[in-house]
Amino acid sequence: MAFRRDLLQLLFEGPRSVSSLARDLGLTRRDVDEDLRHLIRSAQAAGHHVVVEPARCLSCGFTFDDRKLVKPGKCPECRNTRIYEAQLSVVRAGDSRGSS
Fold it and tell me: The domain 2-90 is classified under which CATH number: 3.30.70, 1.10.10, 3.30.390, 1.20.120?
C-alpha cells in the first residue's frame, strides 16, 4: 500500500513514463504497469484527474490508445520502433490545473 502512495506522489509531481517510474523505484516495467493500473482506478475514485499523453510513433505520428501504458515494441502503421512512451500524471482533486 505504501508503494502505491509513493507511486501516486511521483505522478502528482509531473508527467512520467512507466520506464521512468520503474527505474526510480527499482522495479520492472511490468511490475509498475500492474500497480499503475490499480492506482489509476483508485485515484479516479478519489476524485483525482488522471492525465495520459498516449504513446506515439516518432516516424509516422501514429498515436496509440491511451490505455497502452507500457512502451509498444513497434508501430502498427509503419513498423518502426522509434516510439515516444506514454506519459502519465495525476492532478489532485480540486486543483485548478486539472480542469479542461
Answer: 1.10.10
Listed in order, strand segments (DSSP E) in 23-74 are 49-53, 56-57
Residues sharing a CB contact under 8 Å with residue 9, sequence separation 6 or more, in sequence order: none
Cα angle, residue 29 at apex, residues 25 and 30 outer, rounded to 5°: 120
Residue 99 pLDDT > 50: no
Grid coordinates belonging to 54: 498516449
At 44, list the grid cell.
479516479
How large a percentage of the chain has pLDDT more than 70? 92
Q: Rounded to the nearest 10 degrees, what angle do helices 18-25 and 2-13 cross at? A: 130
Cell matching residue 26: 527499482
Domain boundaries, the chain: 2-90
pLDDT in tens, 59-68: 999 999 988 8
